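From the methods appendix. Each design record in this collection lists the tokenized structure first, followed by the designed amino acid sequence. Records were kept in a plain field format so they could be parsed without special tools. The example shown here is representative of the layout used throughout.

RECORD:
FOLD TOKENS (95 positions):
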């Protein structure tokens, strides 16, 4: 599986978030909480602060070839959020 938060180009400042893929509700998905340090993931993308009780999660399918990022309260909540029928990925600039 690819790294969920690979290093990003920060030569002009950190990018806001990361792009998300559209996941298939018919495929199995896994999720993992993404640790943030002062709003940055390990690869250098900036996510800002989360609401109380919320964490940033990466949800993936197909051995990490499809990845979506979402704020959620748990892994199961994150999976349900991004595999729901009406969820659409948001461009990195509005994550």
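DESIGN:
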């Amino acid at each position: 599986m690819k790294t969920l938060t690979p290093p990003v180009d920060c030569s002009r400042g950190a990018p806001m978030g990361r792009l998300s893929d559209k996941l298939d509700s018919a495929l199995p998905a896994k999720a993992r909480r993404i640790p943030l340090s002062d709003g940055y993931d390990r690869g250098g993308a900036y996510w800002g602060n989360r609401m109380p009780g919320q964490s940033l999660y990466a949800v993936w399918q197909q051995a990490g070839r499809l990845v979506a990022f979402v704020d959620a309260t748990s892994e199961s909540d994150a999976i349900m959020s991004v595999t729901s029928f009406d969820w659409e990925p948001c461009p990195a600039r509005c994550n």
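APPENDIX NOTE: The chain has one domain: 1-87.
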